[in-house]
Amino acid sequence: MHEAEDFQPRFVTHEGLPDSTADTGVLLREHEGLLRVELVVTPFGMPRRWRRPPAVRLARGEWLRWQVNYRFAGTHGDEWTYRLDTLNIAYGPTATDLFLSTPTHSVDELATLR
After folding, report:
1. d(CA 108, CA 69)
2. Phi, psi of 15 (to 5 degrees)
3. Would you kindly state where each structural domain of the chain is located, as residue ranges?
4. pLDDT, tens digit, 9 for 90 and up, residues 26-81
5. What is the three-class DSSP state of 82?
6. Which segments of 1-114 does DSSP mark as H helices, in order?
7. Is the pTM of this model over 0.85?
8. Exposed, middle or buried by CB within 10 Å (0-12, 13-18, 19+), for 50?
């Protein structure tokens, strides 16, 4: 969300595995009936994350919510911006209101930003 856009949430919905040449921020791989999900964090945000959670494996019908936040240094003095990414991903056919329920798996990478 951006202040200039009155903090309207932005979201993108995809079906199927992403194009491997696209910069999606998430790595997905199917193997032996499971979907391996790994979030790729930006190297430009702070704080640096030296230790990251392992990839999550989803069985069909399960879903994951992965949250991570960043602070970006501004180009005008001490100003900085905040970014919160929330990845909701399901494996297999799901109900349209699935992401309103409690996730099967949850990863919290929210950090204290100074």
Report:
1. 9
2. -120, 135
3. 18-109
4. 888 999 999 999 988 777 777 777 788 899 999 999 999 999 888 877 766 677 77
5. strand
6. none
7. no
8. exposed
